[in-house]
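2024-03-11 09:14:02 INFO worker-7 job=invfold-0412 stage=load source=structure_tokens
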């Protein structure tokens, strides 16, 4: 399992991007994790699935609402990673009005979740292998803070906790 001091695993996430005005997609586009984190501070949070109750009602909104405070604390980008395809993540981004505040990145085959060792088996609930709920601060590709939720919990991966850590 990934821990503080480890580099993020080599992986490619997918991002759905729309062109303003005409509705034509210029995505899904691959996001090379190593290249995209190089020289940046990233507030990354991961969750089991798009449009799920806790994720939609609490997790994503907290990061959207605190985006300016994260920037003020030195965070370059906020990433939401979920085991969904880029099209679902794009639709969820529109629904959650993430705009330029949170990058919604799909880990469609759970390759990133598996490489971090932070998977959650929801096969019995019809959802297959998903990502555990967690948050982390990443500086130049290295994990500096890691908050992993217990099963069914939403206590330490919220925006307020990670923001306090970013300020510290």
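2024-03-11 09:14:09 INFO worker-7 stage=emit residues=168
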């Amino acid at each position: 399992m990934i821990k503080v001091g480890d580099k993020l695993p080599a992986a490619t996430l997918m991002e759905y991007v729309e062109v303003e005005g005409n509705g034509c997609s210029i995505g899904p586009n691959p996001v090379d994790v190593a290249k995209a984190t190089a020289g940046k501070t990233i507030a990354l949070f991961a969750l089991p699935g798009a449009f799920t109750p806790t994720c939609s009602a609490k997790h994503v909104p907290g990061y959207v609402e605190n985006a300016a405070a994260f920037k003020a604390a030195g965070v370059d980008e906020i990433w939401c990673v979920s085991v969904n395809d880029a099209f679902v993540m794009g639709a969820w981004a529109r629904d959650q009005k993430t705009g330029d505040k949170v990058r919604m990145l799909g880990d469609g085959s759970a390759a990133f979740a598996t490489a971090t060792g932070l998977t959650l088996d929801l096969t019995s609930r019809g959802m297959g292998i998903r990502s555990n709920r967690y948050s982390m601060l990443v500086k130049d590709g290295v994990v500096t803070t890691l908050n992993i939720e217990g099963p069914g919990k939403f206590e330490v991966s919220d925006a307020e906790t990670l923001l306090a850590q970013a300020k510290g």
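2024-03-11 09:14:09 INFO worker-7 stage=report msg="The chain has a mean pLDDT of 92."
2024-03-11 09:14:10 INFO worker-7 job finished
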